[in-house]
Amino acid sequence: MSATPVLALRGISKRFGAVQALTDVELEIRPGEVVALVGDNGAGKSTLVKTIAGVAPADDGVIEWEGRPVTVDRPHTAQELGIATVYQDLALCDNLDVVGNLFLGRELRRAGVLDEVEMERRSRELLATLSIRIPSVRIPIASLSGGQRQTVAIARSLLGEPKVVILDEPTAALGVEQTAQVLDLVERLRERGLGVILVSHNMADVRAVADRVAVLRLGRNNGTFDVRTTTQEQIVSAITGATDNAVTRRARRAADRTEAAEAAGAAEAEGGGA
Amino acid sequence: MTTDLSENAGEPRETPPAAGQAVAAVDPRLLVREEGFAGYWSEFRRKLRSGELGSLPVVVGLIVIGLVFQVQDSAFLGAENLSNLFVTAAGTGLIAVGIVFVLVLGEIDLSVGSVSGLAAAVLAVLNVHHGVPEWLALLLALLTGALAGALHGFFFARIGVPAFVVTLAGLLGWNGLMLQVLGANGTVNLDDSGLVAALTNHYFTDIAAAYGLATLAVAAFFLASWRDSRRREAAGVPSRPLSELVLRTAALAVPAYVVAWLFNQYKGLPLAVVIFLGVVVASDFVLRRTSYGRKVFALGGSVEAARRAGIDVAAVRISVFALSGATAALGGMFLASQINAANQSSGAGSLLMNAIAAAVIGGTSLFGGRGSAWSALLGVLVIQSIASGMALLGIASAVQYMITGAVLLAAVVIDSLSRRTQKTAGRA
Ligand SMILES: Nc1ncnc2c1ncn2[C@@H]1O[C@H](COP(=O)(O)OP(=O)(O)OP(=O)(O)O)[C@@H](O)[C@H]1O
Ligand SMILES: [Mg+2]
């Protein structure tokens, strides 16, 4: 755990119009570590993932890669660094076939021409390891089921030689066997020394594979927990921002409301000044 | 990496018993095609039902058009008429090739007519008024087209103006520039024995030329697909059986030799056809076999997915519009060659609509992400056949416009319907 983080986020903030989606978020991922990123719906998990992946760069804050600050302003830079991302909305091209999607943006070439044969061979191999049944790797993505698409998206992230893999709710649409395969895969990625960020709402999955759990709440860090020494209740209360008791929950809600109102007021003042 | 993963897949795990067999690569529900011709037939019927029509409607349409006009006037399918039809089609067809790229991207380019006229004017004025050698003037004209297209692409990709509006502005603007370039006189006549004149007037009279080209095309097609099939077999991925390769080659050989024979019945192999076919084959190669083409298709499927895959969206968009401008200019050279002049009506009239209609009639979708360079050839043959047949029968251009309009509408209806059936059949 003492190694330098392969990826570190320092004070990441991101705003969408009047919504302050992320405020001063910190996160560190070391090689061979699985960090689960959890939080309620709308907590800002996907937004954070997109800032790391260069899809929606942060407004403020620093991303450090292997100890030095880097600018990740477009997806290509993130890929070059070695960040592979599976997005919650999958981001596949419906009109391309499975092979075309898997290798999109990094097609294999032979004398300058697409090497369809090799790409098809590798696609079949890769999909077989993820235990997915796909009628054919040559049918358009549009004709696959949600889970099949998700597996294609996951397979896609493994094709480059990534150092950090970010999975945004990778098992949301998967069946029992495929979920098990993905969790196995996460463990194998860890064994190979990769850093993994796993976004999930499933506490059982998180506890099964994660080393640490980082909680986001309303766009802010709300604690980082070591999975071995923390109970599920502690994590859940960090997510909901309440202990398990209805009275404190109500009190906390009231506090949040004033906080949110203040934040909105501050944001407005800032917007007016800019 | 993948090998050590698959070793693990065989090991027992605390998952339901179904896990063991889950590695089977083929879904038992997948309808495997039968061997032999029965297989082709059932595959064909399945594709028809699920809306994957490809170029079938246009091929059927071409045959129907050919038969209808042939019944009316037996000169229609004669060597002279067909040879002229091909030569006349080349100019519009080349413009349609660029349109195919733009349509696959999911956009539209309304400026191609004006750009082709501008390029013709630039060529004529440089050559005739300024004494620039024809080959250089031709290159500069092509460059003009590419730059005009790149400018559209810039406003679309970098500024975010809808392509429809940018190219509509181009339609007006470039037409104005063309009038300006042509000057007060309005018409510049070209050297009638020069390079540009040769574009549509030169024929390779040796009968070996047409048959040679047909043989070359058929042989290259067979060898390429045979080698591909061998490599697939070696790599253990599905490949086409030899019988299917032979069948496909025959399907190409028959029209290739018939057309070659026809050309030889008249003046020989037209240079215009050689260039047009060359551009179509090259474009098809770029679209299907290069990563650039893959990017164009990806953008037509989902811009956001393409962007997240690290594709430089703006660069691809600008280059596609530049390419469309360049092919428009090239088409303009052929149209100028036909009348041996550049004049105020160059690139005007129904040219733009014919070029777009050709791409759509040929089977390229207006919705982006689906299409082929060959649709430019097939579509322009349909349009030119109608025009040529009507001219032969002495039917007024008013009726001709209405019929071409109806054919375009039919093509778009087929495109929309096939997209809808493909959706319900899970193919789009
Ligand atoms: N493109 C956008 N424009 C405006 N607001 C956005 C945008 N993307 C996200 N947001 C806002 O940012 C906040 C965080 O959204 P985000 O998608 O990151 O949540 P999440 O934690 O991934 O939630 P979920 O668990 O539902 O996936 C939400 O309030 C959302 O409305
Ligand atoms: Mg999310």
Describe the protein's architecture and organization.
Chain B: GO terms for molecular function: transmembrane transporter activity. The complex is a heterodimer of chains A (274) and B (428). Chain A is of the alpha/beta class and 274 residues long. Chain A folds into 2 domains: 7-96 and 145-241, Rossmann fold (3-Layer(aba) Sandwich), CATH 3.40.50.300; 244-274. In chain A, 39% of the residues lie in helices and 24% in strands. In chain A, a hairpin with a 2-residue loop joins strand 11 (212-217) and strand 12 (220-226). The longest helix of chain A has 28 residues, at 246-273. In chain B, helix 8 (195-201) packs across helix 14 (313-339). By secondary structure, chain B is mostly helical. The two termini of chain B are 33 Å apart. Chain B has a single domain (58-205, 267-419), classed as ABC transporter involved in vitamin B12 uptake, BtuC. In chain B, strands 1-4 form a two-stranded antiparallel sheet. A two-stranded antiparallel sheet of chain B has the order 2-3. The interface between A and B is large, with 53 and 55 residues.
Kindly name the structural category of chain A: alpha/beta
What fold name goes in the CATH topology slot of chain B?
ABC transporter involved in vitamin B12 uptake, BtuC
Give the quaternary arrangement of the chains: heterodimer
Number of helices of chain A: 9
The fold-level CATH name of the largest domain in chain A is Rossmann fold
Write down the Rg of chain A: 20 Å
Largest sheet of chain B: 2 strands, antiparallel
Order of helices and strands of chain B: HHHHHHHEHEHHEHHHHEHHH
Largest beta sheet: strand ordering of chain B:
1-4
Bound molecules: adenosine-5'-triphosphate, magnesium ion
Distance between the termini of chain B: 33 Å
List the keywords.
heterodimer; A: 274 residues; alpha/beta; Rossmann fold; 2 domains; six-stranded mixed β-sheet; four-stranded antiparallel β-sheet; 9 helices; 12 strands; globular; B: 428 residues; mainly alpha; ABC transporter involved in vitamin B12 uptake, BtuC; 17 helices; disordered N terminus; binds adenosine-5'-triphosphate; binds magnesium ion
